[in-house]
Write a structure and sequence with these properties.
This protein is α/β, with parallel strands linked by helices. It has a domain at about 50-165 and about 205-280: 3-Layer(aba) Sandwich (Rossmann fold). Helix content is about 40%, strand content about 10%. It contains 16 helices and seven strands. It has a four-stranded parallel sheet, sandwiched between helices. The longest helix is centred in the middle third of the chain and has 14 residues, at about 205-215. It is globular, with a radius of gyration of 19 Å. About 35% of the residues are buried. Belongs to the sulfotransferase 1 family. This is Sulfotransferase.
Length: about 325
């Protein structure tokens, strides 16, 4: 079968801009951090430019039983999860071939709904039957394609506590400001997180949906906590490998994967795009003071699931 050179238009069917505009007319709209228009769909907020690929992904993507779908909300350790999963699935028995040294993990493991914005070819051949497709999405469980939910493909979800997620998101956002622009006020950023008014938000619902499904179908969805990944790297990486059907057999294999995917190494690789240090870094006292506000605004949505969030290690 002829292989496609264009990953995004082949993996999801194109949708006309006019169709999306008509479809989204009645959906709630808001402004995220004074910089991005967001639209609410199925109870979650999406950047308006992501609605089209997200809708196309949901309506036309056909999952295969051997697919591996990585899922996470923004700034929760996605690059790390992509790197680890890539090494487990692709480099398990190929120690001499280091894929992470040749290209950024995001080009080896594309985020499907944002792949349309890629400026260079992606290293995914969706017609390759020799091994599983390894893909990623930021989409909430509610809007995943039915084929993902109903097939035997595996889903690995990575969650992170809301405080660190927020601060990471805030730093990342401020990197794109012009020199004459002030950082977005952290107080307002906290309020946005609490109200769920952010990309792929509400945060708690995003986490809780995947956690619930992982409890119902533990053979289908693996729920991984970033904090446990940091504190027990060997145990958690071995857990992911077991779940993906690629358990480590030889002594030293897990250590090799951990070395390849260490955060320090990923940052130091020449092809890893490492942004400069944020221009403004709030003190820990400021952060802690602001984080105390998290449970106060619009608490009904969050308090409805305190047990779930505590169990996920992401209680607000």
């Amino acid at each position: 079968m002829m292989k496609s050179p264009n990953f995004p238009t082949q993996i999801i069917s194109p949708i006309e801009d006019n169709d999306v505009e008509k479809w989204s007319i009645g959906l709630p709209k808001a402004r995220f951090w004074d910089a991005m228009d967001i639209t609410q769909w199925e109870g979650f907020w999406f950047g308006s430019d992501l609605l089209k690929p997200a809708l196309a992904f949901r309506s036309s993507f056909q999952s295969r039983d051997d697919d591996v779908i990585l899922a996470s909300t923004m700034k929760t350790g996605t690059t790390w999860l992509k790197s680890l999963s890539l090494c487990i699935l692709k480099n398990h028995d190929e120690c001499k071939h280091d894929m992470l040294a040749t290209e950024n993990p995001h080009f080896h493991v594309p985020t499907i709904e944002s792949a349309l914005f890629s400026t260079k070819p992606l290293h995914v051949d969706i017609y390759d039957a020799s091994g599983p497709r390894l893909l990623h999405t930021h989409l909430p469980y509610a809007v995943l394609p039915d084929s993902v939910k109903e097939s035997d493909c595996k889903v690995v979800y990575l969650a992170r506590n809301p405080k660190d997620t927020l601060i990471s998101m805030w730093h990342f956002f401020n990197l794109f400001l012009r020199p004459d622009q002030e950082p977005f006020p952290l107080e307002k950023a906290v309020d946005c997180l609490c109200s769920g008014l952010h990309q792929y938000g509400p945060f708690s619902d995003h986490v809780a949906e995947y956690w619930l499904e992982s409890q119902k179908r533990p053979d289908k969805i693996l729920f991984v906590k970033y904090e446990e990944m940091k504190s027990d790297q060997k145990g958690q990486v071995s857990r992911i490998a077991e779940f993906l059907g690629r358990p480590f057999g030889e002594e030293g294999q897990v250590d090799d994967v951990l070395w390849r995917c260490s955060l320090e190494r990923l940052k130091n690789l020449e092809n890893q795009l490492s942004p400069p240090s944020p221009p403004v870094a709030p003190s820990s006292n400021v952060i802690n003071k602001l984080i105390k506000k998290l449970p106060t605004p619009n608490t009904l949505r969050y308090r409805a699931r305190p047990t779930l969030l505590r169990s996920a290690g992401t209680s607000l």
